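Many introductory courses stop at the sequence. We go one step further.
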Amino acid sequence: MHLAVERFKEFLLDSGLVSRVDVETAEKEALVKKVSLGQVLISMGKIAEGDLRRMEAYLLGIPFIDLHGMRIDFDTLSIIPEPIARKHNIIVYHKKADALEVAMLDPQDLEAIEFVHKKIGKRILPRLTDSESIKNALLQYQKSLKAEVGSMIEKEAKSVVSTVDGTGATEAVGEDDLKKLAEDLPIVRIVETLLNHAIVQNASDIHIEPGEKDLLVRYRIDGILHDAMVLPRSVSPGIIARIKVLSNLRLDEKRLPQDGRFKVEMADLGQKVSIRVSLLPTFYGEKVVMRLLAENSKGFTLETLGFHGEALERIHSALKATTGILLSTGPTGSGKTTTLYTLLDIINTPQVNISTIEDPVEYQMPRVNQTQVQPEIGLTFAAGLRSLLRQDPNIIMVGEVRDGETAGLAINAALTGHLVLSTLHTNSAAGSVPRLIDMGAEPCLLSSTVNLVISQRLVRKLCSGGEKYFLSPAEIENLKKHANLDRVLAVLVAEKKVKEGDTFQTIPFFRPVASPTCSEGFSGRVVVSEVMRVTSAIKELILSGASSDKIEEQSRADGMLTMFEDGIYQAAIGVTSLEEVFRVAMTEQ
């Protein structure tokens, strides 16, 4: 089944739903973005997805199915595991004696069809549907999964309660007792289920927090913590012990923090996940935070992270340098490390030797020599960096500049012919210079080594189907207090995101629309950033000891969009909402 583009265009024009001008404009954009004509028309708001899908179904000669309100039997639905259904947008909704009817967004996805055929051995009858139908069907997986997880954990927890209560105590004290508890089958099942559920939910972190009477489990999804479940307090010793065993940590140590890691593999997802573990003693026991890192997920690109236009060009230009410092800055959880790894991936070629010193090593990269900081034996950032310089690297990545010694060594490395990448905790790109000077860095050395500073935050991305609206004059005036809207509009026009002549009165914005399959109307995150190139004018300001405000003023004069302005750009192209930009990127008080 192949939908000929020319035939589709003719049918589209004959239908009268879209004008010839809009089709020609969308066709040019589709060639540039390398996506289908239909996708562009939907993103432009020129045609509803349902109308487009029905048209495609007619041209392909297959039925269109609307799954809204359809209750699918779970035995039928679960023929395809949820991760596969979500990845390929394919739902089994009806089971016949000799065939399966499957709803798809892309009936030409032969890989998905072949998967179902091999698993079941029945004839596959593809049907075309739309995104909302797929989302509503995926919701049924979630309801079933939560019911399954809740009932299973409740059952297993009761088993653990009786075991623990039978000993006359709610917490095991000896190492042997803890080891036995960690190997107890109900505890093993509870921990496995918590991990599997978090991975399916695309959680980035799992928080296990002991309270006076219960154990709270929370997942961080798209940067926001959500309560996942509450477990009986009595299962806490077993769960903590099980995680310690998996992470190869000391079972009998409850007074000091511990860090470790382990890996899990989900066969149905074909996915390996590296889990970084941190334990911290609290008043009611040990709190556990587990960071989930997918090992075999596809690498990011700067474009998919959210960089664009002039900022993207500045980054690529800085990566071509063979000496100097490139900094990625922002608070904890702003995606600095992901950006840094993406930059390393771009410049990771056979012609260069790359060495890193990190705390911790979050992703393993081929052809990169990665060293883990171990302060307890004297292997600090500074000590590791000092040793790295004797390893003849071309490129050095320092996980974080934390003190004056590390800053000084990084500067010296840049002066002696190395390209140095690192992170720094500052609220803005311009603020990185005073921060380094406070650490003891010499202004004259900073001005001659720092090439580029990226400052960033992460905003949540809107799910498709947000509520469309237009800014009122009062809202536009409010935005003008914090951003140069003329510059933002000029960037939107230059990057062909809006038409020449559009204004902020005519550009549509979107509010999140919550749905059961899309938490609070958002799914996934994207970077909003400011990328400051250290020009000759900024070098002079650094040498004169200028404030961060003066440096930012000059950066804006040099063409830099501030983080808030970049957030407005992302909202104007429908990626996020203005409310989310205000929540995350507004640094002015």
